[in-house]
Structures are given as C-alpha cells and as structure tokens.
Queue: 3 jobs
Job 1
Amino acid sequence: MKINEVELDNPVWNALTDTHIKECIDYGNVKFYHPHFAPFGAFINDSDTSNAIKEYSKLTKDFFIVGNKPKMPKDFKAAVRYVGYQMIIYEPLQIPINQEIVKLNKSHYEQLIDLVKLVYPHFFKAKTNELGTYYGIFKNGKLIAVTGERFQSKNFIEISAVITHPDHVGKGYAKQLITHTSNEIFKKNKTPYLHVDVNNLGPIALYKKLGFKIRREMEYWRISC
C-alpha cells in the first residue's frame, strides 16, 4: 500500500513538528530550525510571516522559508525566489557498492566540516550533521565524499549533502553513497526523498538514473537582512 505523501507537501514544517521538534524555534504557525542546525523555516494556513521573520532575523541574517511566498516585514528586502525539484524513490536500490562506506561519528566532524566548506557551504551549519546519520568514503585517511540525512518526519527522511571532493568526482562515489543512504532509510521503514535545484542538471540526471522520480516543484525564499 502506498504511503500517504501529504507530509512531503510541507516537509520543513512536518520535520519541525515531528522528529526535529527539539531543534525548532516556534512562532506558532511559523517555525524555523535553530540556526545552528539548518537555515530553513516554514509556515501553514497562509499565516502572516512578517513578525516571525523579524524575530528570527535577530538570530541569523541569511535564511530560507520553504513553501509559499512569505509576507515580509516592513523595511526588509524582498525575498528571493528559488525553485527546486522534490524527488522520491519507492524501492531499495540495486546499485553495486565497491567502496567501504563509513558511518560518520564525532571523530570525523572536522573532516566533514572541511569538506562542506569546500563544496557545500551555504546550507550546512555547525550542527546540521546532528539532524540525521551521515556516511562517508575515505581515501588514505581523508574524507573525500559524503551523504547524509536532514529533514525527517513520520514516514520520510530527506537525503542531503551529497558532496564529493573536486579531486575525486566522476568515480561513482556519490552514486554509491546515495544507494547506501537510501537503503538504510528503507531499513528504518521510511521512504527517502531529496531536493535539488531545477538548474542543477548533472545531479538531476544522476538521481533519475538511480530511480528517483520528480514529485513536485518546491519554492525556496531566501531572506537576507
């Protein structure tokens, strides 16, 4: 029986009211991740977001609301719209894995942050890795590729931070890490999904090749103060 996917229609909200409720800064019908964990928020019921944005901007100056266009406080710059695809897969992947994939822990943190800063600095914060499980591939003791989990709710876990060091791209590491991470999510009796910018054609092609399907477009509104 197919799982009801309504959670994915507002994934940030449903993560913040479920698995990640402890990481939530709550403004009623508007909620944000604590900025040490992720720069994202969401809202429901066509709420007036202006006061929540004003309050949250005291904590961080660059963040996103995922979903409908937010109402901005007076004297704030207009939010900048980005569009991404939400992609989902329904069955475990059968891709061969010939690399050793390591479940990352605290001892790997500095290497993880160094790799993130090099490749993926905008969305990954000091405690993003605490939102889920992260897996990596090492060469000569150095972390050179990683993939992990971010937004989580009752039935779904988002795959995020698909990162490969520029010196190691094109070797199939991302494909193997996505396969491993997806299959670990299925073992938890949850369904993996991910988000990708509509203009990021290379990753989109990879995800489709692995079996991910485009479920819908998602709007991201960047707010810079």
Note: Residues 6-83 form one domain.
Job 2
Amino acid sequence: MILNVDLTSDVPLYQQLRDRIVEAIAAGVLAEGSSLPPIRALAADFGINFHTVNKAYDLLRQEGLIRLNRKTGAVVTVTAADAAFRADWSARARTLLAEAAARGLPPAEVLATCRALLDEFDTSESGETK
C-alpha cells in the first residue's frame, strides 16, 4: 500500500493519513483483515512524529475502520454504518455540496463528479466489484 501525503498542505498530516487509509479501504486496496504498517515504521517512512500516525490510527479505531491490538498491530475491520454515522456523513456531505453550490458549480457537474468518484471505490455491497 502506498500512501501519499503533502507535507506542505494546510490539512494536518494525521487527517491526510486517515483520509488516504479510508480511501484505500473504499477502493479495496485494504481489505478486511489487512494489516497496516506499524506506527513507528510509518512515521519513520514519512519522517514525521509517531504521535501523528498514532492520532490517525486512533481516529480510524474510533470510527470502527481498524482494530488496534498489541500483538497484531493495526488491522482493517470495517463495521457497518449505523444511524449516528449516517447522520454525521449526511451533514458533512451537505456542507461539501453547499460549498460547491456556493461557488457556482452546476448540479450536473457535481453529480457527475460524485458518480465518477464512487466508481473508483469497491461497491461490493451492490454486487459490483472493482
């Protein structure tokens, strides 16, 4: 698995790491049961503080996307979306769509972009696989 982060971005590194791992899970690059690199090794690879990677992994754990264990390390373990996740996701999507509308993006372009991005991810629940 190759993760790309931008060390000059305004987005915090832990958030970038979290986001790239979520994208890898969605794309099927990281399947259920896949091991993530150890925190210290990943930090060393990027030349960043291990607490940064630890924060990203902890966020993923809180979100139910990975399991952390002293013996096995970080392992992908995706839990199904519950009502709280659906409400939070909907609120975040609403804000992102509002930003697109406020900047004048046409609804057809927004929908086309959403469809194209969704096509990049593993859609095994609907019976399609990428």
Note: Residues 85 and 118 are 18 Å apart (CA to CA).
Job 3
Amino acid sequence: MTATRPGHRNWLRYSDSDAVLRLICLPHAGAGASSFNRWVELFPAWIAPVRVQLPGREDAASEPALRRVPDAVDGLLAELSALDRTPLAVYGHSMGALVAYELARALAAAGTPVLHLFVSGRRAPHLAATRQQIHRLPDPDFAAALAAMNAWGDAGRSASFLRYALRLTRSDLELSEEYRHLSEPRLECPITAFHGTADPIVDAAEITAWRELTGGPFVLHEFAGDHLFHHRHRAAIVVLMAEAVR
C-alpha cells in the first residue's frame, strides 16, 4: 500500500493492517526495500514493517541517488506525514542506521518521537571515522574495498550486479562518509543495537557508543557474523525488536 502524493513516487512499502506499531526499516548502502522482503512475514501481526525505498535503487533506479543525510530525512518526513498517527519505531542497518538516527531526531523535534530506535552495523554517529573513506576511490579500488568488507555478499560476484551497484553504493557511501554529527537534539527514546562479532567495519566499542546518544535505556545484542549478519539472524532480531516494543 502507498499514500502517494500527486506526481510523486512513494518511498514506503507496507501492507495495510490493524497493527498498533509501524516499524520503519532502512537498508544498508547499495540495498533497497527488497532487502527486507524476507523479514516481513516474521513480524507479529501487531507490528507493521514499512520498507523504505530511497531513490536510485531497484524500481527507483532512474532517480538520482541521495548524497546527503538531510535530504533522506526530509523526504522521509514528507512520506510519514501522509500516514495516520500509528506509533513508530525505526530500524536501520549500516548507512540505514545513520538515516534512522537522524530521522528519529527529526521526528522528536517535530513533536512525534519514535517509541524505539534499533540500529545495526554502524558505529555511533558522534564517533570520528577510524577507517579510510572509500567513496572517492576509482572503480576497481572501490569494488575491491567493498569486496574486502563482503559488502554485497554473494551478489558481489556478478558483473551485471556490479555495474548497477557501484554507482549506487558510491552515492550511498558519500552520504554516510560525508556526514557530520551535531550534538543536539538528544534522543530520549530507548536504543537497541545489534552487532556482528566478525564485522570488519564496526567493532564492539564503536557500536556500544550508541548508548551515549540517548537519555533512555540502551541494550546491545551480539551475533556471530560479518557486516551482513543481520540477514542471517533476521528471525532472532525480529523477536528481540518485538520484545523491546511490546
């Protein structure tokens, strides 16, 4: 279902339901709404997962990809304003965690705070980067750097996929790597973070630092796996999210 404004492609993918909570799901760099397709059926009926399709990917591949976090947040605020007042929580992985965080802050500033922020696969936004930026690298070096991180999983072995994904992932990583954190406003909602113990991009201390960004409770859950651990453990993650907002 969509709530489309005239002349505008809707960014949200969800099914109409009697759910008492909507969970906004933001994918990692280079991914789109379909990365959450296998998550949808795992949620209890009282949670409605809302998959976000940012410009530049999948059925929105003809649109210019966004390169700055505020552009993503402003677009999402406009999309969410068309929905009813069902309470919201937000989940994002990697780049999606960064957008989820700023979206939660924007919603709180607008007087509609989220019930919970869930993040995975991304260092806390206020921490300085400890790894070299890669979004400006030439294509061969950029592809090699992403392969070393297992950023695309098995799909990264496909030449046709790489032709599509390199451009999009470069834009997404520019959005992430050029981000600058402002200390205010501070969140008051609970934050739950998920971490892959073999993640080559984010270490445990970097994700534990999310606790510093809210006046509310903080919980960390660790899982075996690399940067894309969240897909392997999606059923367990959904259970933990449902328990956190019950």
Note: Residues 159-177 form the longest helix (19 residues).
